[in-house]
Write a structure and sequence with these properties.
The structure is a homodimer of 655-residue chains. With 655 residues, chain A is of the alpha/beta class. The first copy, chain A, contains 20 helices and 19 strands. Chains A, B: This is Alpha-glucuronidase.
C-alpha cells in the first residue's frame, strides 16, 4: 500500500493520513474494494502513532443510498463523521475525500453527497513494451520508462503499479489504458497471446477500482488473425473481434474495453476499405457489448502528409469534417474521443468545434497531461486553468451546456504524464497536473485555484512546516500563473507550433513551417497568422455554432489570445489590449522570462520548507527552464524583428 | 579478383580489360604486388577469349628507373608496349594506366613517365563497427553498411574488401583509414586487443599496395591504457603511445599510421591538459617514427557550442586561429589534415586560408566524397569540378603555388562515399566522385572533364553499345554541370547550410540559424549574408594573403559565388552578373530544377545503352532528386519572398 521504497508519496504522504489514522474507524461491508479500504485505514493508523482523537469515523455500505456506483454521502455531526455509499467504490472515494478535507472532516457540517459528474475518468498511457532508441519507451513521456512494462514484458514489481493505482483513485481517476495508441508490433499481441500480462496489471489497478483498457490496432484481424482483410463489414472480421473481446474478458472480468487510433498518422483504419469511422467503431463496439465494454474511438484523423504550398487544406477542420456527419451513427457503447483543441495540445487553442456538434454521440474529451508542447516536465506549467477553461466553454453560447457537461456521455481522458521516475512525473511540480486532471474529471467545474490549494495542502503538509503561510503563498506564486508564463515566452496569440521538429522541445519558429503536418503560421515581412474565417479563409470559424462562429470570424471580435489562430494580420494590428501584435510579441517574451525568473527566485526561498531532495530537483529543473525560456525569448524576438523590421518600443536588446 | 557476385565492376568491367587480355603479356619481377599484377593479367586473359593481337605488353622492374616508388615509364613503339618501374607498385599503376588508355595503349607514341604528384592519396572511412540506430553504421554514409565491419567485427567476406582495394588502386588511391574519426568505445579497441581484425583488412588492402591507417582516440591512454591522464607531455603517456605503435606494427608491418580528430565536436584532445595541438600530434608522431609511420592530425577544431547571439565569434576563422601559429612545430612525420574549406563541405566555400599559411608544416587537404551536403547520393552531383577548383587555387596569387602543390607534403584525403551497397556508392553515378578523387590525388591539375571522359569510357564501354556518341554525350550532359545545378537549387551565393538539422538532407533555411554550430546566414527583411570583412566584419577575410584578402574584403571585388560567405548585402545588391541578389536567388532556383529535369530527361533517353538494372536505379533516384529539388526551390523562394517582399521579375509561381 505504501509506495515502493524511494518512490514519492505525492498527494498521499503519511502526514495527510493522520486525521484518519489518529481516530477510531469502523468499516461496515465486504468485497475487494472494502478490503482495500480496510488496508488503507490500517496503514494510516499504523503510521499515526497512538489513537488520540475521540471522534469516530464510520464507513458504511447502504444499497439504498442515492449515491450511484461511485458517489458517497458525508455526514459530520456530534463528533462523528460518516461516509455512506451504495457501492464499495463510493466508500473508497469517500475515504480519500476525508483525507483531502483534513481536520475539516471532523467539524460539524451539513450533509453532502458527492457523485462524479463524469462516469469515465481515464488516463491513456502512451507506453510501449519495447524501448525505441530515440523516442524512448513512453511516447512523449518525460518521466522515465513505463510504469507497466519493463524489459520487454509486464513489470514484475507490482507494488509500484498498485501505488500508482492508489494515487489515481485518490484524485478520482477510474480507468487506465495501459499501452500506446500507436500500437506497434510487439504491443499488438497484448490483445491475444499476451493478454495475461495485461490481466496482471489489471489485477493491481482493480484493487483501487480502476478499469483497464487496451489500445488495439484496427488491423489486428490481419496482423494477428491472419485474415486478408480488416473490413469492418466483413463477417470474418466481425467474428474475429468478437473472439478477441471474449478472450480479453475471459482473462479480465472487469476489463474496460479498447482504445483505437485509426486512419491517423499512419495507423490503419476503415478508410482502406471504403468504410466510415462509424463502421469501424461499431464492429468493435459490437464485440464488446455482450461484456459491457466500451470502445474509445479517437477523432484525431487528419492529413499528415499535407503540402505546405496548399493553403486550402486546414488541419484544424479535420475532426469536424470527418466526424460531424457521423453523429448518431455510433453504437451506444462506442465513445468518440476528441482532443480538446482542433490541432494538437498547443499551449493555446480554441475548443474543438466538433465537441459541440455531436449531440447524438457519446463524446469523451481528451486532454494531455504529459507536457509535450508545454515544457516537457522541465518547465513548470500548471495546466488546470487551461483545462478548466476548456471544460467551462459553452459551444452554443451562454445558454448552452459546457464542454464538461457535454462530456458526460464519454467522459474525460488525459494522456498520462507519469512514468517510472521516483517522483512519478519527472518534475515534482508536474504531479499537480495529474492530480488536477483527476479532480476535474470528477468535477469539471471545480475551481483550479482551489484544486491547487488542495494539492498543496496534501503534498507539502504546510502545517507541519515552520512557516505554513510562506510555503502556501510560495507554491501559489510558482504554480498559479505558470501556464500563462509559459505561453508568454513561447508561440504567441494562439498561433501554435514554432517548436523543434520531432521532439518538440525548444523554439523552432519555422520548425514546422514547410512541413507536411499542416501546422503553419505564414509569417512574412508584413504579418502573421492563419486566416480561418469563413469570408476569406479556410472556413474553419464556420464550424462553430453561434455566437462563436461570429466571434471568431473577424479580427475585431476575436479574443486576443486566439487572434493568430483565426486571422492573418499585419504586425501593426492593434489588439484589444491596445498593443500592436509585434509589440505584444516582444513584451510577452520579455515578461515571460522575467516571470519565470521570479518564480525561480520564489522557489529558492522555500528551501527550508520543502524536503531537500524535492527542493533540489525543482531548483535544478528551473535552471533548464530559464535557459530554455531565454532561448525562446531571443529566438522568437529575433525572428520577428528580422522579419518585421519594427523595433521594440521598449528599446530592449533583441539580437 | 573479380568482385563478389552481384557487386558492380564500376570502372573495371571485363570489357575494359580486353585490350590487355587479348594480347601476349610478359611480366618480369617478383614480390607480392607483382603477383597481384600476374593475377590481374591472367584474369584479363581468361575473360578475353583467344589471344588475337600480335603486340606484346611487357611489364618490367628496373631498380635504376627514375620513376620513384609508385611511378612508371610507358613506351609504345614497334607494336610493343612496355611499362617500366623502379618498384612493383609502379608496375601495378602502369597496368591500370594501360587499361585506361584502351586501344591507345597500343599505338606508337613518345615515351612518358608518370609519377603521382602526391605521395599520400588516402580515403578516410567514417565507418563504425557498431550500427547506430539513427546514424546507421557509416557516419554520413549513403551506400549501405561498412565495407570493413559487419556484425560487430571485421567482415568475414574478404573478397569484397579485395575487390574494393582493386578499384581504389585502379584510380590511384594508396591508403585507407578503416574507421571513423569519431572513435567510439568499441572502435577504440581496434588499437589494442582488436588489432588483429585491422590486420586482416590490411592484408587484403595491401595486395593492391594500399596502406592501412587507423583512427584513434586521443584519450586512448586513459580509456584503453588505464592511465589517469592523456597529457602528451607525460612520460607514461609517451610510453603508452610507443607501446601501442609497436603493437600495431608487430601485427601490420606495412601499417600507415594514425588519424586523430582531437578537441573537436566532443572528441578529447590536448586542450584538456593545457597543451598545444603540436604537442598532441608530436607525442603520437614520435611513437610512429621508428616504424616510418605518420600521424594525420585533423585541423577541424572549432567551438561547436557557440551562442548564435554572439556575432563576434566566426567558425570560419577557427582552423587558422588554432593552427597558423603552430606552423613549424609539428614533427616531420606529423601531417596536419585540413578540410578544403573553412566550414564543413558545403556546396560552395572559399579555400581554407590555413592551407596557405603553413609553409613549415606538412599539410594534407581533406575533401568529402560522401555527399553529406551535396545530395547524399540521391542527387547527381559530380564534385570533380569543385575539387579541381580547390586544387588549382593559388593562396598567394598568380605567382604562388597551387593548393595541389602545397599538399605535396601531406597529400590529398577524401572521406569515402563507398559502402556495402552493390554499386559501392549507392547512386551508381556517384562512383565518378570516388574515381575522380583518386585521379586528382595522383594528378591534381588533371582536367575534370577529361576525368569524366575516362570514367565514362571505362565504366560504360560506349564502343560496345549501339550508339557510342549518344551515350557519351548523354553521360556528359547528365554529369558535367551537375554540381552547379545542385548549387543552384540549394543554398545561394556561398552562404551555405540551410539544411535540415541532424541528417542534413533537404531544405531548412533557418535549420541552423539559431543553433550552436556557428553556421548562420543572418537573413532579415533587408538582406542576407555574413560580414567577414576586416573592416566591418569578423576579420576572416584578413586571414588570406594578398590578393585574396583584398579580393574578398569588399562586395565589389568579391566573386559572386562567394558573396554571401563574405558579406551581408541588401537583397537589391547588384551582382557582377547584373542581377540583384534576390533575383539571382529566384532565377537559380527555377533554373536548377529545370536543369535537373532536363538531366532526368537525358537519362531516360539512354535506356537502350545502359545495363537495365543500373539504368533503372538511376532513374528511380532521379525521381527523388526532382522531388527534393522542387522542395528546395519552393522553400527557398518562399522564404525569401516572404522576407524580402520583392516579387520575382519573371512573375513565376512562388508560394
Amino acid at each position: 500500500m505504501t509506495g515502493p521504497s524511494g518512490i514519492d508519496h505525492a498527494w498521499l504522504p503519511d502526514a495527510a493520513l493522520r486525521g484518519i489514522g489518529s481516530r477510531r474507524v469502523t468499516i461496515e461491508g465486504d468485497g475487494p474494494l472494502v478490503d482495500t479500504l480496510r488496508a488503507e485505514v490500517a496503514y494510516a493508523q499504523g503510521n499515526a502513532g497512538a489513537l488520540q482523537g475521540d471522534a469516530d469515523i464510520v464507513f458504511r455500505l447502504d444499497g439504498d443510498a442515492d449515491t450511484g456506483p461511485e458517489g458517497f454521502t458525508l455526514t459530520r455531526s456530534g463528533g462523528r463523521t460518516t461516509v455512506t455509499a451504495a457501492a464499495p467504490a463510493g466508500l473508497l472515494y469517500g475515504f480519500f475525500h476525508v483525507v483531502r478535507l483534513g481536520a475539516a472532516a471532523f467539524t460539524d457540517a451539513p450533509e453532502q453527497t458527492h457523485r462524479p459528474a463524469l462516469s469515465r475518468r481515464m488516463l491513456n498511457h502512451w507506453d510501449n513494451i519495447d524501448v525505441h532508441p530515440v523516442m524512448g519507451q513512453v511516447e512523449r513521456g518525460y518521466a522515465g520508462g513505463s510504469l507497466f512494462w519493463e524489459d520487454g514484458r509486464a513489470r514484475g514489481d507490482r507494488d509500484r503499479v498498485r501505488a500508482y493505482a492508489r494515487l489515481l483513485a485518490a484524485c478520482g481517476i477510474n480507468a487506465v489504458c495501459v499501452n500506446n495508441v500507436n500500437v506497434h508490433g510487439t504491443e499488438a499481441r497484448l490483445l491475444t497471446d499476451r493478454i495475461s500480462e495485461v490481466a496482471a496489471i489489471a489485477g493491481e489497478l482493480g484493487e483501487y477500482g480502476l478499469r483497464t483498457f487496451l489500445s488495439v490496432s484496427f488491423a489486428a484481424p490481419v496482423v494477428l488473425g491472419g485474415l486478408d482483410t480488416a473490413d469492418p463489414l466483413d463477417d470474418r472480421v466481425r467474428d474475429w473481434w468478437r473472439t478477441a473481446a471474449d478472450h480479453a474478458y475471459a482473462h479480465i472480468p472487469d476489463f474496460g474495453g479498447f482504445v483505437v487510433k485509426a486512419d491517423s498518422e499512419g495507423q490503419p483504419g476503415p478508410f482502406a476499405y471504403g468504410r466510415s469511422h462509424a463502421d469501424g467503431a461499431n464492429v468493435i463496439a459490437d464485440a464488446l457489448a455482450p461484456h459491457g465494454g466500451t470502445v474509445h474511438w479517437r477523432a484525431f484523423v487528419y492529413n499528415h502528409v499535407q503540402d505546405w504550398r496548399d493553403r486550402t487544406t486546414d488541419r484544424a477542420r479535420a475532426a469536424y469534417d470527418h466526424f460531424a456527419a457521423l453523429d448518431g451513427q455510433f453504437k451506444d457503447n462506442a465513445v468518440l474521443q476528441v482532443k480538446h483543441g482542433p490541432m494538437d495540445f498547443q499551449v493555446r487553442e480554441p475548443v474543438s468545434p466538433v465537441i459541440g456538434a455531436l449531440s447524438r454521440t457519446r463524446v469523451a474529451v481528451e486532454l494531455q497531461a504529459t507536457q509535450e508542447y508545454t515544457g516537457q516536465q522541465r518547465h513548470v506549467c500548471a495546466l488546470a486553468p487551461m483545462w478548466s477553461g476548456v471544460l467551462g466553454f459553452r459551444p452554443e453560447g451562454e445558454d448552452g451546456a459546457t464542454v464538461g457537461q457535454l462530456a458526460d456521455g464519454g467522459g474525460l481522458v488525459a494522456v498520462s504524464n507519469a512514468g517510472a521516475d521516483p517522483y512519478w512525473t519527472g518534475h515534482p511540480l508536474a504531479q499537480f497536473n495529474l492530480y488536477a486532471y483527476g479532480r476535474l474529471a470528477w468535477q469539471p467545474d471545480a475551481d483550479p485555484q482551489q484544486l491547487l490549494h488542495e494539492w498543496t495542502e496534501l503534498t507539502f503538509s504546510p502545517e507541519e512546516t515552520a512557516d505554513p503561510e510562506r510555503l502556501r503563498s510560495g507554491l501559489r506564486a510558482v504554480l498559479r500563473g505558470s501556464w500563462e508564463t509559459y505561453e508568454k515566452y513561447t508561440a504567441p496569440l494562439g498561433v501554435g507550433f514554432m517548436v523543434q521538429p520531432g521532439h518538440h522541445y525548444g523554439p523552432g519558429v519555422d520548425g514546422y513551417e514547410y512541413s507536411p503536418w499542416g501546422t503553419y503560421h505564414f509569417a512574412d515581412r508584413d504579418g502573421i497568422g492563419v486566416d480561418r474565417s469563413r469570408a476569406t479563409g479556410t472556413g474553419y470559424a464556420a464550424q462553430y455554432a453561434k455566437p462563436w462562429s461570429q466571434t471568431y470570424e473577424t479580427p475585431e471580435s476575436c479574443p486576443d489570445e486566439l487572434l493568430l489562430f483565426f486571422h492573418h494580420v499585419p504586425y501593426g494590428h492593434v489588439l484589444h489590449s491596445g498593443k500592436t501584435v509585434i509589440q505584444h510579441i516582444y513584451d510577452t517574451h520579455f515578461e515571460g522570462v522575467e516571470e519565470a525568473e521570479a518564480a525561480q527566485g520564489v522557489w529558492a526561498t522555500l528551501a527550508d520548507l520543502v524536503a531537500p531532495a524535492r527542493h533540489a530537483r525543482v531548483a535544478e529543473l528551473y535552471e533548464e527552464q530559464l535557459r530554455s525560456a531565454r532561448e525562446w525569448r531571443d529566438q522568437v524576438n529575433s525572428y520577428f524583428l528580422r522579419k518585421s523590421g519594427i523595433p521594440d518600443a521598449g528599446g530592449r536588446r533583441i539580437y
